[in-house]
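anyone seen this seq b4? input:
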Amino acid sequence: RTRRRIRITTTQSTSQNHHLHNQPTNQSTDCARHCCSILSPPQPRSPTMASVEGSGDASSSNGVDFLLTASILAAAATTVVISLLQSDHVSRKFLLNPQRLQLKRRQEYEYYWDKCIKKINLQVDYYLMGGISAYQQSGSASDRPNADPLEKIVNPISGQEEIERFVKEEFVAPSSAETGSRSTMRILKIDSNVYDSGDPRAFVFLLKSSGSSAEVFQLPLTTFATTLQAHFETQITTTAFCFVADASSGAASNLIENLVSNSAPDVKVVSQPTWMVSLASIMLSSAKVDDSKMRQIMFALCRLEAWNAHQEWKISVGSTPKRRIQTVVMTLPGQASTSVLLPVIQSAFPEDRHVFAYDGCVPSVQRALRLSKAERGTDLQTALDSVLTLSNDSTRHCIPLGGNSATPSTQYLSSKIRTLPSALSMLPVQHARVVETWMMSVDAFFALKHNERANGYLPYVFRYDYLSGAECNDFAKGSNPYWSLCSLLQHITGSRSNGLDDLILTKAIRWMQEFHSTDAVACVDPNFPIKTIENCVFQHKSILIGDKTLQDTVLPKQHWTLKQASKKGGCACCGPEPDDEEEEEEQEQKKSRHSGQSTQTKKDATSLPKQPATGYVDGAMSFAFDPARFS
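predicted toks r here
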């Protein structure tokens, strides 16, 4: 009976185990198995089995490492391929036609200018806050999240009545008042990204300094400029402007700035103001300001610079200065801004003096490339004059400034000349963008000269190497450099009729003798694409390549003129030569014989002895000038 019970129990347990083996494992079975595994002694592993398991782990690890390495290499290769496909060299050689290549390059130009303007505004904010550390500390203590710390020190003025009151208190106040005679007003920046969210208008920021105190004002640009323009138009001023436009990558305008600053004490130089760049960007933006409004804005802000120059002069020499500022020289910020700003400045100041300073395209390209290589993007200015001057950014000479508007002066030159994109596509982008920038500046000059009778544009056309060439070391009286220097200073200071001051001329000659140009005019690199650059310039049929001079370049003479003689449509002083007159008389005689008319009158006139050409005009017989030009 006992054996039978054991057999039955064994059979039942076997059937239960078989049944549990076919069912999902429950929690108690897992716990029992876990306890058995703990209580049972470890079994020895054979060496063969251990080696097999180790090789499996190693192979799986190697596979993961291989896949990870392959994915990294594939990502790097993809990045390199995309970079190569986006590079200018591959695009112009294999992928894009000239028109599409120009569209791609224009996107890069817009990016560079947007970066330049943002840098200008951030530099002003950095200066006002006293450095990056002060800016961050002020920002962390702000009451509102995402609030700009500069908002705390800015005084906004928005209403029309407030603006009129501000202009009256600051600019129309009697000169005896303390606030009206001892304060200066500097233009900090023109910015549309202001603290009033949702307002698309542009605002001008002014810095008022009076002694040790300073205030910052924020005013709507158009409303403030029109109000200020109405005030300045009613004021009689003895200060004249001289605007200097550049087409030499900054070399000629820098020479004029240093020459005038070191020789003429009654001339104030306003060097490449940054607010002009911001104004040019507004002209090219989609929310374009009306042309008449833009002229008013330009007139008001330039007159504000002249007013501030007088205020600084009063503070420096006393309340009753012995010699006032007679001329304010304003240099445009780089050759890139000439095509946009020069037509507006000429329309706002048609009666003031202008200088167009230029150099050849090849040396200008070489100079701009050297400036871009020597530029350091991490330089932060600490002085206010350096902050408000665009003198440390190569963008002003290297990147074209244009748009797609219908106004011809604001368009890219490659959009106006059909054959220019093909010529520019033969150059690397570093060279092509400087070439187009230089050509746009010269094209703006030709556009104004073409319509000079209507707009009154009659500038002093200054060629850079007339004062910087190898033969310009000697400024002896009567030499070409001497006459070029005299004529340039006479035009800038407005002393042509009264005569140039001997002290100014002596200082200028001394400074020029100490001046040593660092520009390498000659091409040192034998691989420099001179022929390709000249081919691009040749596409503009009005620009002469090589060492030729531009139209109406002032020649180094004692009796210089702003308008050079021309045989086509010139005045009576520039009449035909005697040989040309004889040929015309012979042709008239032949025509009269053929028609059977008497030629006795002509014979009597031609039988008289020829008078030697004296260069003078008999006022009783003809005009000494073209009266149509003055009608």
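The two ends are 148 Å apart (CA to CA). The beta strands are 154-156, 183-191, 203-210, 213-220, 240-247, 267-271, 327-331, 353-358, 460-463. kinda curious what u guys think
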